[in-house]
Structure formats: structure tokens, C-alpha cells
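User: ok so my PI wants both of these folded by tonight, can you help

Assistant: No problem, let's get them done. Here's the first:
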Amino acid sequence: MRYFSYLIITFFSSILLLELSLRLFDSNCYSILPIYFEKKHSTFLKNQNICVKYTGHPKSIYITNELGFRINIKNETNNKNFLLIGDSQALGYGVNIEDHFLYKYLNKKNSNNLEIMAAPHNDLKSIQAFSINNTLNYNSYEKVYVMLNLAMDIDRFFFGWRENWNISNTYNELQLSKYFRIYPYLKIIYLKFKKYHFTIRPAINPYLDYASDDEVEVLFNQIVNKYLNFFDTNNIKKYEFIIIAPAWYIDNNQISKFKNFYSEKEYLDLKKNISYYNRTMQNHIKFLEKIFIDKNLNHNIIKNIKKEDEDLFQINNYHLSKYGHEQIANSF
């Protein structure tokens, strides 16, 4: 009985120590990205100036407007507003908006505002739900940029939108995390014990491994047409597609980061076949580029950047680092 009491005391003392440590080192920051589901779409907490800091990511600031879009601090001299739609890569996960590749590109010559409607694992279904549940004049923007993530779009095309897939936080949980900072970490441990499905598959689409070139082209056409239908439904006239070539997302550094998510055989096969995946993904990008050209669609496919010695991606995932955003901005 005494041993059990010591165990309980040790457990709660450890929890208290961790809670105090989090408050000491990041007293004003969320330990999770404060995004939740609202009426079948994902959104940030609205009208907030939010600091976020958690394991593997640098401290970053997210300023949101009344719609939950990420925005920069608007300057009255700014003359044009732009909107970017997409997933966590479009969001600028873990970097300040001033370091975001599109913000840097748009502000090379003139001062412009950027609003970002994006969230981790965001897809077209979520974006459509937002458009139904909110009043937004897309043509009030100088241009609407749509950033495609082929891995995400292919997943959604085959499986559809799975509610609470990876974004499992509720509004109330986000409020709780303000006061109980360790809560998100305990939840992650709980979900891992439940073998919760975390999607970590940089650039690897098993649907395409055995697909013919004609099948890939048909699939990409269908995905692009879904976005074109969205534009037509919402009367969006000024838009441009952005693609960050997914071949970037698979290199030896990235594979090593995700070793624990693969079986030993899967990991060894991936290491052995990395050159194959790079070739096939680069080939798929050519199909997508052909579709854009044939349909006369504005697009920007970022294929070639200068890597140098720094990693384009953050420490423990495939989201672009500050350096990666800088390299892409210079490649537009």
C-alpha cells in the first residue's frame, strides 16, 4: 500500500513539474496549434494574436481575423489583399507569416496583405464547408492562390473527408490547454496507446505505385476539375494554382525522421527505392503541369531550388523551415 502511495505521489509530482516547466519556458504560448472543427470545417481561434511553441518547432506567432484566417499585421499603406487556400504547408506551419514564402514573394516590390485559409490536413471538402457556412467575397481579393498537396488530395479523393482525422481538438479542449498546459502532451500519449492514425507518408502514394501513366493523368484531371468546380460555384475569377513538387519531400533526412512510423521492412524498402520514388514523383509533376497548360490555367510549380547545406524542412516533420520558405520565395 505504501509503495502504491509513493507511486501516486511520484506520478502527480512529475505532472506538476512538467506543467511548471512548460509555464516557465513558454508561459504565453499554446503547446498545440489552436485549430478546431466548426460545422464540418477546420478553423483557428478567431480574432487572436497567438503564440505557439511545441516540441520540434520554433516559436511562431499566428494572428487571426474574424473568420479564423491567418493574417499579417495590416498596414494602411498596403494596397492589395491576397488569399491563400490549402493545408498545413500552405499555412506556414511553425514559421511567422512574414517568413512565409508567398508573403515574401508578394512583398518583394510592393506592400501587400496576405490572408491564409489553411489548416493541417485541410482539403477541398473542408474549404467547401467553410464557403457554405460563411459569407466571403472571394473576388474582393486581388488573387486567390490554391496550394495543392498531391498526397493529401489523392488521400481525400479515395477516402473522402474523415471528421476529426488528425485535427481532433475541440474548442473546449483549446480553452482547457490555456490553463492545463500539459494536457495536449497527455492526449498525444493516449492517442498513441490507442494506435490513433497519424498520417505520415511524405511523397509516397501507394495508389500510384502500380498505376499507368494514363491512369495517373486521369486521376489528376479529376482532382483539378474538383477545384475548378469549386471556383465556378463560388464565382472565383482570379486564381492561381501553386504546387511544391512532392519529390522534395522524400530524401534520406526525411525518411530517417519518420523511421518509427514504418516497419523495419518498409523502412529498408523505402531507403532502397528512394531514387525510384523521386523519379516517379517528378514524372507525375509533368502530368500535372501538362493538365494546367492544356486547360490554360494559371499555375506555378516550384520544381528546382538550391538546397545548399541547410535542411529545407523542420526538425521532425516535412513542413518547410524558415530557410525552405526563403528558397521557395526566391524560386517564384
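One down. Here's the second:
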Amino acid sequence: MKKVLIAALVFLVSCKSTEYINRFAKSATTGTIEISRASLSFGSICQLYDPAALARFTDTSLYTAAKRPTVQCIEFRKADSLTKLINETLVNYFSLLQSVSDKKLLAYNATDLVNSLAVIQPQVLPALALTDEKISAIKVLLNTVLNEPIKWYRHKKLVTTMKQNDSVLARVLSAYSFILDSALSGEISQAKENYTSFVYAPLYGWSKTPVEKVMINQQYSQFMTSLEVEKDKISKSVRLLSIIRKDHHLLAFGKPPEGFAYTEKEIDQDIVIINKMINELMQLIK
């Protein structure tokens, strides 16, 4: 009897864990998608970074305007390709976790079959004597027998998969964070400096009236504000990736000696934070 109770408790916890994996994976999938949408591309930065591109802001010559140099940005486009690959890999991984942890995914749904029997049996098969109570019992029994063991197996396989991939995921998330927080953020800072040197300073120096100077300052302020928004997106994205990394490890390995109770509380809190940050990112994208 004791063994049965222990097995039942383990089973209940495992099902609960599967639900938490599903909730986490759903938020992580949405989060990584929004990070991709929110991030300014390296190619876009190149247009603000390259002096030849910036020269267009100050060049009023019709002849030169007709022969504006093409900014290649080849290395920047390579960086964008790598960033896109990393993001798509993360989205696919978390989507997989979400799908496999969905308790409805492998459920055997006998509703249509049983309902059909219920309709035809009074006329065609009256000997079955399927009352509403019996029909309901059949549904419950079928779903219990066919789905519950699958959930138990699915949980064990899920956790094993997450354990196997946890260290790899950590490295991928670390690389993604570095690209956003160091490389991309650094290029934004350089773009701000270049804009100040190659655009703002010459235009302000050439402006002759107070009205012109006000307009140049407004342009400058808008440009700098737009890049600060990009940095804010990066900051939120990096924090989001950090929480995702922590929660994946927690769901894979638990938190001894507190066990699942600690994990449950931590995941609950973090999902609220993740969803809040997703909403904030979506607002900044608009």
C-alpha cells in the first residue's frame, strides 16, 4: 500500500511538472520570437555606422546625390544571419518542449466515438443500454487508461531531454546574450558617436539661424532617443534570456532539498516576469 501511495505521489508531481514545463516553454517560445522582432539588425546599424552612409545626411550636391555610394555591410549581414540562426534554433527547441509537454497532445479522445454509439445504440444496438452515466464513465476510463501512462512516460523523457540539452542551451543563450548586449549594443554606441561627428556637428556648424539650430537639435535628440529605445530593447531581451536559462535548468534538475515546491513557486513568479517583459518589448516595437 505504501509503495502504491508513493508511486501515486510521484505520478501526480510528474504530471504537475509537465504542466509547468509546458507553461515555461510557451513563454520562452513567445519571448524568443519577440526578441527577434525587437532587435535592431546589424545591417540596419551599418547604415548609421558607415561614414559614407552618414555623409548622405549632409551632402546637398545634386551630382553627388545621383552617385551615392552603396554601403555593402557584408560582415554585418553575416552577423545578422548568425543571430537569426540562433534565434530560430531557440524558438524551435522551446516549441518542441511546448508541444511534447502539452497534456492534450497525445490524449486519446474518444468523445466522438462514444457519442456516436450513444446516438445509434437505442435504435440499432439497444442491448448495449448505454445510459448517460455509463457514457460518461467510458470517456473517463478511456482517457485515464490511454493517456495517463503516456503522460508519465512523456514527463520522464522530457526531463531527460532537458538535462541532456541544458549545458548546450546555456552556451547558446550565452552567445545570444553576448551578441545582443556586447556586439550589437557596442555598434549602437558607435553609431551614436559617428552620427554626432559626421552629421550633427557639421549641420549645426553650418546652420545660420536660431530656427535652423533648433531643428538640428530636434533631429539629433530624436535620433539619439531612437537608439536609446534600441538599447532598452536589448537590456530587456538579455534579462529575458537570463530568466529562461535559469528556469530551464531548474525544471531539468530541480532545487534540492526544497524539491518541486521550490521549483513550482520560482517558475510561477518567473512566468509572470517573462510575460510582463514580453509585453514591454511588444510596446517598444510599436
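DSSP finds nine helices and no strands in the chain. Residues 2-105+140-285 form one domain. Good luck tonight!
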